[in-house]
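Obj.: predict assembly geometry.
Materials: sequence records (below).
Method: joint structure prediction, all chains together.
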Amino acid sequence: MELPASSGPNAERGSARWLAAVLACVVATLVAAGAFVVWVDPFQQYHLASRFAPRFYFLHHRYINPGLARNQSYDTVVSGSSIMENTRNDVVAKACGGSAVNLSMPAMSASEQRLMLETAFAFRRLKRVIAVLDFNEFAGGIDERQDVAGPLPRYLYDRDPFDDLPYLLSWDVLLKSWRIVRGDTSERFTSDPNAAWYWGNVVRFGRAQVLRGLDLEHLNARYKQPQRTLEGMRASFDHNLLPIMKAHPETEFDVVWPPYSILVWLDFAQRDQLDVTFAFKRYVAEAAAALPNVHITDLQGERTITHDLDRYDDIYHFDPAVNEWIVDAACQRRDRVDADNVVAFERELRDQIAAVRTPAGLRTVIDGRSSP
Amino acid sequence: MLFNSYEYLIYFLPLSLAAFFLLGRVRASFAVGALVAASLFFYGWWNPRYLPLILGSIGFNFAVGALLRRAQASGGHEAWRGALLAFGVGANLALLALFKYADFAVANARAITGLPLALPHIVLPLGISFFTFTQIAYLVDVHRGRAKEPSLLNYALFVSFFPHLLAGPIIHHSEMMPQFASRSNKRPQPSQLAAGLFLLAIGMVKKVCIADPLAPVVAAGFDHPQSLSALAAWLAVLAYTLEIYFDFSGYTDMALGAARMFNIRLPVNFDSPYRSTGIREFWRRWHMTLSRFLREYLYIPLGGNRGGRMRTARNVLVTFLLGGLWHGAAWTFVVWGALHGIALVVERAWERTGMRLPRALAWGVTFLFVMIAWVFFRASSLAAAGAMLAAMLGRNGGGEPWRDALAHLLAPDAQTSLAVSVAALAVGLAVLALQRNSNALVESFRPTWPRGAAVAVGLVWSVLQLGKVTPFLYFNF
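Observations (raw structure tokens):
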């Protein structure tokens, strides 16, 4: 069976002309759209912003960070979750030497941290990685991601230009490009390449802010963090981070356990997550012991920070001065943990947690009487 | 690979067409081979691990078909041919049962017996329902002497031809093979390429510009039926009624359009179903190739309407229960199928009374029934369906002012624009009211410049809508 031709050679010629014209219009329009996006490059995938002021769009880390990893000049990477977003590149450079880029992202999972670091290693020879680990990033399976993180644009994390079409031919990106050219500032963004993801100047820190709406009996009612298992955390660490550390012996990895407020530990205690968490820390210390390029800095027992709720925005997020202190501690290798002293660090922190689990101890923290 | 993806539209489809027509100039079998290879690549793009499954299925059914033909040619005993057919159909159904219904069966067995049975958690391979039904129909047709296919390559193309592979239409061997065999179909025909592009553009616009923007509205409603006012609940169900039609029929238009570019005409699958004035008519217009399959290979073998009213009613109910279950392994689909089966039985009984509803009223009743039945199709569980129906009946009370309730439903998150949701609803309803659907439009297609401009705009706009930028959603850090 053959499809009926429309009506002879003339009609076929007419169809051919129509087809050619339509396809030419479609292709030309799409090529023009793609070229415009490349020229403006709102997510800095092909070049750093130079024609126009850079725009680090609010909460677009997963789209822009791979561009920074690809195009920025650096030999040191800061990799962490939202708690590390207030780390300025120049602060890192001053504390650690060299040049740095902060590739942190909110609600980062271990698999995303791996992908981000792999992207950085693919484009730069790194002297140092400051990897600030969140326990929650190891929750769930080895490739687990948080729903709130939104989709991950994996096509931006590789060298294959042929899979960049969702960036090049996207109305959303086209619109952002057009707004940049027009100077339209209706979207929320920052423009400082030195502090791309900095939010420390737009939120309030303080005890009142931390305690607002908090149920002290059930701290996780507000944060809804998932339960973790030691098996799952180990599997995720082994799959996502350990191989990178092993694959790059020329790079110094400064692994940091960040100084959450003591209320985070109280939450862990309330959810029966303390033993899992400490066992995981011991496991990481043992794994790092075999790798001379990996150093662990444990700041979680630093009570001058963790008991002073005025330094926090919520129970997890501290003020930017703490970010500077973290970077300095990591690069100076203060509070260094290894397989030998990890239990001592643990004992000290367990004592602090035990104190806060008493009504009087908790009241001391809540009232701010334990502040330095 | 999805039709509404960059890799399909920008790379796969143009390269496949080029390979097919270039190799068709050399030798027809080369073109067929190229199209089979392209189709398998298309299938394997999702997960190459399932390629052996479809290849095994194709090889098995081709072999059973060959045995059936041989038995027929040698005057083999009917019982032997029947057993062979039963074996072939049974094996296909077993494959489908394993991949699609294992979890469902185990979960129900666990609920009934209380035994701690572990769910096998078998991932459903894409398109397995479609390629299994296509091949069951082939075996039955061979058994009936209506089909024979001596070439494995041609048979592989019949099953795997990528435009119909993942979501239908469900095709008949007899309607496809003459087209695949035609030599002239291996040459590019500008009129067919143009008509195919026209249909592809219509499908893209339906899917990307109407169905997709409605998805978050539907999700917002169906995910939280307990908090919906009656108005919001009805709107969510109406949005789903539009979404499922424009999604599925749009995808089908893209399939028919792509096939048309290869000079292949796939059977029409949708014919303005929401204009139906009865449930029987609805099923003649909705997923028409599934209706055809169920009629020819289930309803009629069960006895059809021969054997009296009760037996006919039983056959209708069985057909629709199984048809419902074919759509998904959940009781919600079974209830959906049962509702349609019961409605058909009631409709037949009503027709026998000789009374006729005014056309507008018949349309209204039909549309309302179809909408309400969709609640079971979309809901995550029977309880969720019940909650949605309760919300539609106003069980949740007034709640927030109706304007706020609708605004929350139509713009449930920062990524969903109220204007886009309203526009998608309005355009969707307007398209339903149009007199001519995509089948009619493509049949009367002429390559005029206004149409060319519309196709170009539609394609460009749809392609640009594929790449959404979705930032981090949690604003409270």
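Conclusions so far: Chain B touches chain A through 42 residues (CB under 8 Å).
To do: check interface contacts against the pulldown list.
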